[in-house]
């Protein structure tokens, strides 16, 4: 059993991203970005964002800039909005105890959303039968 599945998933996501041309996958909806192979020049000429997947800072960039996971723009927006709805500030918190409390609350929100997304993906897979 993996003692740290979150850390393992993050390492795997970073490893895949480091490969370059291999597309990243949204950890929530499994969106893989562009299906066709195009150049950065083509993307710029057509006004398409180069990066359709974004790094989501699970607990907020100001709290821990290294704790990230790849999400599509839609899931990234929903996750960030979920943090804000729960009162998780994106501003740096000077009080170390409060910063730890915010980080723990943010992780709880992330894991609740991630569990919901995984259940949704499982339901989609079952519907393919």
Describe the structure.
There is one protein chain. With 129 residues, this protein is mainly alpha-helical. It has one domain. Helices cover 50% and strands 8% of the residues. It contains 4 helices and 2 strands. It has helices spanning 5-18, 40-45, 73-85, 96-127, and strands at 53-57, 68-72. Strands 1-2 form a two-stranded antiparallel ribbon. It is globular, with a radius of gyration of 16 Å.
Strand % is: 5-15%
Instruction: Report, as a whole number of angstroms, the end-to-end distance.
Output: 29 Å
Structural class given helices, strands, pairing?
A: mainly alpha
Query: How many strands, which pairing sense, and closed or not: the largest β-sheet?
Result: 2 strands, antiparallel
Q: How many domain modules? A: 1
Percent of residues in helical segments? Answer: 40-55%
Mean pLDDT figure = 77
Radius of gyration: 16 Å
Oligomer: single chain
What coarse outline follows from CA principal-axis ratios? globular
* Order of strands across the main sheet: 1-2
SSE pattern: HHEEHH
Instruction: State the low-pLDDT regions, or none.
Output: 34-38
User: How many β strands by DSSP?
Assistant: 2
Number of helices: 4
């Amino acid at each position: 059993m993996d003692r740290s599945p979150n850390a393992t998933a993050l390492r795997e996501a970073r490893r895949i991203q480091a490969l370059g041309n291999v597309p990243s996958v949204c950890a929530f909806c499994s969106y893989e970005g562009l299906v066709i192979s195009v150049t950065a020049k083509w993307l710029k000429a057509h006004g398409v964002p180069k990066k359709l997947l974004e790094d989501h800072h699970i607990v907020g960039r100001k709290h821990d800039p290294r704790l990230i996971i790849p999400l599509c723009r839609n899931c990234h927006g929903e996750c960030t909005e979920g943090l804000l709805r729960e009162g998780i500030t994106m501003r740096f918190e000077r009080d170390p105890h409060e910063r730890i409390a915010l980080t723990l609350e943010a992780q709880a929100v992330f894991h609740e959303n991630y569990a919901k997304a995984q259940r949704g993906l499982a339901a989609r897979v079952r519907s393919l039968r």
